[in-house]
């Protein structure tokens, strides 16, 4: 099956695939840590162009998917509060909490609204001064600058009926958690280009050095991804473990300094729970004390249950999919009991979830690329 988009440069794609085959002399396992990259790999059949020795793992690169149950439950509780408007990106509406989701809460009468930007929520707050407006802020470093700016603007404009429920997570600590895990199978990483466009590459240098893993900052087109894989394979084959920037057209070493400065003013780094991965130290953003008046977690105290490792139905393997230990087709319920309309786990809900990607582009496939288990090629260096 021809997965390639006819408008992409097929000659370049095939030339890069040949270069990867020529450079590969032994098995290697490479993980992309971006849901957008996962979707591109699955959509265009990037993995099918690689030699059998190369295994691509899909990591926890979907921020919606890793938002913990307790945060979704808290958002649902806030949405049910009288005289409150709960705003969220559309992907969050179907993500299961412990008992229900935001879409069901909306159907039951809660005022839940889908927005495209935190500024939309701030505008609603100005237009509805007699109501509380809460924005459910999730995402990696890519969405954090806009959310920080919304809080900053709320304070500058004196908008008192606006607040934010923050569940931001950070990529580098999650990569370290994966490398520290007993089942680690990762030899090298493709780092998310849009995250690095904000944060730069400095955070990855100590990870590459400590764990002796190559990290290649990579874009999202088929050519980007194949170049990223080629750069990573060449490092592995030569025994190097460096941070390289394939996505130099968009990523500077220092990142976006203005965005980083705004985030540092509004947020502080804290430990976070990740759905399917548990607590990861210093892996998220919370609202800084200087902006505490806009912290929905303080403005709307709710009773959350103790965080549990049983984040999905027992039959759902989305936690292991997020860690690159399983693939969507290895779930017996994929495409049957579990679909985007009736998801058992978060990875089938989000537009960046691995299960959703497979359901859309490869519903008949049980395993992406070759038929081996994700861990079968492991030559992990940790």
What would the keywords be for this entry?
globular, six-stranded mixed β-sheet, Rossmann fold, 382 residues, 17% strand, alpha/beta, disordered C terminus
How does this structure look, described?
This protein is an alpha/beta fold. It has one domain: HypD, alpha/beta domain 2 (Rossmann fold, 3-Layer(aba) Sandwich), CATH 3.40.50. 36% of the residues lie in helices and 17% in strands. The chain has 15 helices and eleven strands. Helix 1 (10-23) runs parallel beside helix 11, helix 2 packs parallel to helix 15 (354-361) and helix 7 (144-157) crosses helix 12 (257-266). The longest helix is centred in the middle third of the chain and has 17 residues, at 222-238. The two termini are 37 Å apart. 51% of the residues are buried.
Short recap of the structure:
The chain has helices at residues 10-23, 35-44, 63-66, 69-79, 102-107, 118-127, 144-157, 171-180, 193-199, 205-211, 222-238, 257-266, 296-299, 318-322, 354-361, and strands at residues 28-32, 54-58, 84-88, 111-114, 132-139, 162-169, 188-192, 215-218, 243-245, 267-274, 278-287.
